[in-house]
Structures are given as C-alpha cells and as structure tokens.
Amino acid sequence: MARMKFLCDAERCIECNGCVTACKNTNDVPWGVNRRRVVTINDGQPGEKSISVACMHCSDAPCMAVCPVDCFYRTDEGVVLHDKDLCIGCGYCFYACPFGAPQFPQAGAFGLRGKMDKCTFCAGGPEKDNSAEEYRKYGANRLSQGKLPACAEMCSTKALLGGDGDVVADIYRQRVLKRGKGSEVWGWGTAYGAPGQQKPAAPQPKS
Amino acid sequence: MRVTVVALAAVVALGLAGCGERPQEMVQKTGKYQGKPDTAPWDSPEFGGKQAEWERAIQARTQNQNEYTRIQ
C-alpha cells in the first residue's frame, strides 16, 4: 500500500512559487487562503534556502488529535483529510499544526473565520469523487485519476517531490549520493517521526 | 364561517409544522471520525475499483519525478 508523502529538497528549491500557483489554479483556492507557500530563510543573503510548505499529512497528525468535532480522517494511503460540513472553524488545528497548514477564509465581518481549508494531497474530500460538490469544497481529486498533486508534478526543478513515501525517499537518496551533500530532509522528522521511530500510520476505520 | 375555517386551517398547519422537525441531538463519539465516509481513490471510473492498477499508475507517476531515470 502506497503511503503518500511530500518531500522538499531545500538544495533545489529556487523560490519560483510554481507550486503555489499550481495549487491555487488546480484547486480554485479562494483569496486569502494559501494551501501551499514558499518560505525562504536568510532571504537575500548568500546561502539562502527556500522550502515549499503545506500540510505534510503527518503520521500522527496533531490536527486530528485536537479537533473538538473530530472532522479529520486519514485515508488508507495516509492522506489526512477533513469533512468541511462538520468543521466549526474553531482554529485549534491551526495552533496544533507544526507547519501552519490549516487556513481559514474570512467568512464575514469582524474577521469571522470560515471553515478550515488545507492541502488535500489533491485527493478531494468526503464527497462523490470528481463531483462539482467535491471540487467546490475541497478542490481537485487528482489522486482518483491516478495523478499526483499538481504542486509536485509542476515543480520545475523537482525540488518538491510527492507520492509514495518509499519511492520519493529512494529518488532523494539517489540525488544526495550523486551530489554528495544536502541530505537533510526538512520537516520529515516532525511529520513522520525521527528515523528509527517511523512506523506506518494505522488506517482509520471508515465510519 | 370563512374566518373560522381559515383560523382552523392555520391552527392545523401550525400544529402539524412541529411534526416535520427532525431530531438535532448530536451523538459524539470522542476520538472517532464523525463525518461522511469517503471512497478509495481506485473506486473511480478510471480504475473501476482495481487497487493494483491504481498503485501501478501512482508508482509510475512518482518515478516520473526522478530525472536520473528519465535522462539515462
């Protein structure tokens, strides 16, 4: 069983924001919401590093643990999704997430938060696959078409890799061996556990 | 007479309106997903429930990100 993961290679990311654009375009993400964004550390200085950040679909997702209405679920492929019909927009998941992935559209006056929106690994949500309702609430469902997330497939330097964790790790390993540096995978320890502690996420029973 | 009939009809309509009310109590099972069930990605028209075929497609697509295999 494939276990879906993202991997961002900080040695390759050139801060082009192609992933951000691909995501916004593919999923028709509303203004003010960025499911993916590029963060640059030491911007403008020699040796600056950029990383593309979105929901990492953690093995032991903190957002799932803190949600007061239990609207999160993990698919058999390890993608963390949520039911927007249940979400109350409380924002707990935002505070719990180490990647700042959950986003909240402004739903009214006085900064009222709408229902949480986040990266779905282009896997849609709990609606009929590729239906208009699913697209409106969650965006595209590329996974059900046998495709990977648009951000990773669009990445011009292939800094952002997405897909089956084992294959992605293999690609990265080969890359690091060829170039002889940059073996640190940003965010993997936080999302999937430190090496040696990683365990496959238990699939959630569907209710 | 007409006023009485109209008043009676209004009372009946208002009285029966309560019958259409659905229970709204929430049954919360803490720690368990409470939302709608989702289908597997291979249960789509493209793959027709064939999980192995879907996994092969995803594996091939993931390998496409490896330029070392693409340029050799």
Describe this structure in words.
The complex is a heterodimer of chains A (207) and B (72). Chain A has 207 residues and is an alpha+beta fold. Chain A has helices at residues 18-27, 62-66, 92-96, 132-138, 150-154, 165-179, 188-192, and strands at 4-8, 37-41, 49-53, 72-74, 80-82, 160-164. Chain A has a single domain (4-192), classed as Alpha-Beta Plaits, CATH 3.30.70. Chain B is an all-alpha fold. Chain B is built from three helices and no strands. The termini of chain B are far apart. The relative contact order of chain B is 0.06. The mean pLDDT of chain B is 87. Classes of the chains: A alpha+beta (207), B mainly alpha (72). Chains A and B meet through β6 and α6 of A and α2 of B.
List keywords for this structure.
heterodimer, A: alpha+beta, Alpha-Beta Plaits, two-stranded antiparallel ribbon, B: 72 residues, 3 helices
Which structural class best describes the helix and strand composition of chain B? mainly alpha
The percent range for helix content of chain B is 40-55%
Mean pLDDT of chain B comes to 87
Oligomer description: heterodimer
Give a quick rundown of the structure.
Chain A is of the alpha+beta class and 207 residues long.
List the helices and strands and how they pair.
The complex is a heterodimer of chains A (207) and B (72).
Chain A: E1 4-8, H1 18-27, E2 37-41, E3 49-53, H2 62-66, E4 72-74, E5 80-82, H3 92-96, H4 132-138, H5 150-154, E6 160-164, H6 165-179, H7 188-192
Antiparallel strand pairs in A: 1-6, 2-3, 4-5
Chain B: H1 2-17, H2 51-63, H3 67-71
